Amino acid sequence: MKRSAFLICVLLLTGASPAKDLYVRGAFNGWGIDNLLVDQGNGVLETQIVISPGNHVFKVGHKDWSVEWVIDPAASVTVATDTDYILGAQSGPENYLFVRQTGTYRFSIDMSKAKPVLRVARVASAPVATIDPHQDHRQSVAVAYPAFDGKQETARFSAKDADAPLRDYAQSSTMQLRDPGPQFVTYQESAGLPTVRSGNLAFDALFALAATEMKQNSVSDIRDGNYNGGAAIACDCFATGEKWHYVWTRDLAYAADLGLAMLDPLRVMNSLNFKLSGYREGAINPAQVAGSADGLQIIQDTGSGGSWPVSTDRVSWAFGAEEVLKTLPSDERKVFAERALRALVNTIENDRLAAFDPTDRLYTGEQSFLDWREQSYASWITGDIASLASSKALSTNVAHYKALTLAASLAGQQGQRALAKKYGTWAVDLQRAINQRFWLADEGMYSSLTAPHFDGAPMHKFDWLGQSLAIVTGVAGFERARSILERYPHGPMGPPVIHPQQQGVPVYHNRAMWPFVTAYGLKAAAITGNASVADAAYESLMRGAALNLSHMENLEWLSGQPLLLDEKNPALNGPVINSRRQLWSVGAYLGMVIENVFGISATATGVNISPFITTRLRRETFGQSTSISLNGLRLRDKTISVKIHLPPAQPGEGFYLVERISVNGVRVSRHVNWNALPANSAVEIVLGTLAPGQQRIRRVNADPYATSGAVFAPGEPAIANFTRDGGGVRFHIDAGQNGAGIVYNVYRDGKLAAVGLKAGAWRDRSATACYAVEAVDRASGNRSHHSAAICADPGIDIARAVKDWGKPGDRFAVDAIAVPADGEYQVQVRYHNGASQISLGISGGVKWMAVKDQAGRIVARQVIQLPHSRAPAVYSTPLKARLAAGTYSVELDDFYNMSYLQNNSTFSAAGGFDGIFNRFDIYGIRLLRVK
């Protein structure tokens, strides 16, 4: 791009590099680099963006974020149109643009001023001609859905020729869509993909829409602004969605598990392989890590505190791998199985070093997919990411269980009996630990997560993915599964992904439904026979796709809206980010139809046939039919068609039992071996007896615009004025923003010490205990996150300043540490890691810490984490050490983080192009006696 000498001077004076382009990046473009600011002459840079309604967060910056341009480095600014704002080339919070109506907006930066000036203006657009997509279509149907505001929205479906082998569809909606564009979509059924004929044109069309969007997400190259300079990367893979052009480990794995592995196993395998990487050459000292020398392992994507092991749900990869191994052709299956086992072994063994807590036998790490800290963690956690790292999450531990069981199975198949036994034993032990530590008997559900170190209590927080995964993996027994399904709350549009909701936090994970999570809830409901929960899932998935003309990333849970626009509280609008044809939503819908409605699922040995058709689904969706059919499903080298003969529609609730199954006229059981299936298999299923099943479901409702109330948790309290006094402690329970009707519980070392307290003073006698407080809403019973914990022991603090420490080969030691009394100690490093923001990157500090006695013997050794941090000095995750009174030394040595993996060598920030990055500033160490 040609730039004037004047503009280059201005760029230099303002701190930006003229060799780097500037982009407007925000929620409206998935934070991508689609909107380059183009030189218009006279020092003006400009781009135009079509933006839908919402309170859109955005920034101006370089492709690699080496320089950000902000209005106020101290606070977010809501930008008014046709108003000038001075920019500075510095880091700072995001800005906001509130848009009431879809339109084109021009972002201009005038570089000719003394300081660059940003101006946003709405551009008048020409009227758009009205198009009727249903014109000349011979069959059509309209489906009305009640809306949250007492009105109704309508989706209309039509087909040019309903008798055609492959239909052409049109679909329109009266609901305001999330993104700019027409209120309709057209699509066609494809040869090579299955089709549905149910007598319900809308149901058939929505399945075809999911198949179409799967094809749209099937790409020959992928890209992300943070990798490969934003240039394309060749990969016959699945992109993550319309706004997400890369392959993300957990998104892919859950999408594959839910449905994609049945329909395109080779592309799933390619995508799973893309999420494996070995070490960069020369990056690793093999003596410091576990597994094979090449280190082939699963990639943890960029994220909280600098990625793994703050987050450890990379093991969710096993869900997709297990499912695709059932459907791959034999030659590919053998090769991939061997590669999968090698990657799983390296991942499992290093996770055992970095994230396994032998005390409670659980793995640490952020909740799976709930990886936006402010959305589902305590507000104080953003200033202490090490505390997030040391907490334990139900969903992530269930994913570790899946990785262990798959590795054990593959090892057995490949003749590695000792390895199979080892991982099988670890899996059983982990299942037991999950049930011991996370189950809350008073709630009849699993806790979603524990509080961090110095507390560790399972909190009264719940998430639908974790509950559902515990059921579908078998971690939860039948009675616990029944209890979960009866007790997890469902709104009028479906289940939220977390409960209770967070006050003062916009919609994304908070206050939201995610279709892929709803689909896992459906799988769990089918396992236990809960027809009411299954019906809620069927309705939610169909409604969302029908009115949005796409399988969306997420929806606000009480209204079902793709964007709840709240002008009174614009900062709480949302979902903040939302993409059409989100991959795991697409996989969820395909799996809903194939596996749940038609009952077809692949196993390692054959095909299971177990449809779950409720009376309501029969009555309301298939009411005009005596049978429904799925045609052209290809599994391995088989082509399968399925016809289900329906019983007469009946009132009431329940589901229909299978009366008989036949394949090509021969009666079979519910499981048919691969070698017993003909190349062309016509499966016929006759449904018979009505089973009442489990019908209990917990229904809740509230005003979608409410910012507090029965569906919300109280805000977390704080501990103030903590005083150590003669072998005891005193402190003040600070209510924070909580008002009347809230009481407080005190936890001592993770166990309840006092309940139902008022805010104010509290005392206890202990010299070593650690304390945390939670708030309880007496009316709803909902509980807050715990406060940050404070310990009675003042600690042994030793100052030792070292800047930019942690290059391979660096050593750090503090000698002659006098420990005055026997006890259990927690040893931490005081540090700062400013390599990246707390939400991004691959450069979290990960090191070995060792405590040695006077004779130089190691008395404790553990991997510790020093994640990205906002504060100038914070504490690492702790090393646990039982020490006798005496003199000790503490040493640090290298381990590794995700920057050591070859696939991250093109990452744009720290740990990427410039080589591995595992460095931070050290300010000292602390030893706290906790017992």
UniProtKB/TrEMBL annotation:
Residues making up the signal peptide according to the UniProt record: 1-19
Gene3D superfamilies on file: 1.50.10.10, Immunoglobulins
GO biological process per UniProt: carbohydrate metabolic process
Domain of life: Bacteria
Keywords carried by this UniProt record: Signal
Designated name of the protein: Esterase
Organism the protein comes from: Massilia eurypsychrophila
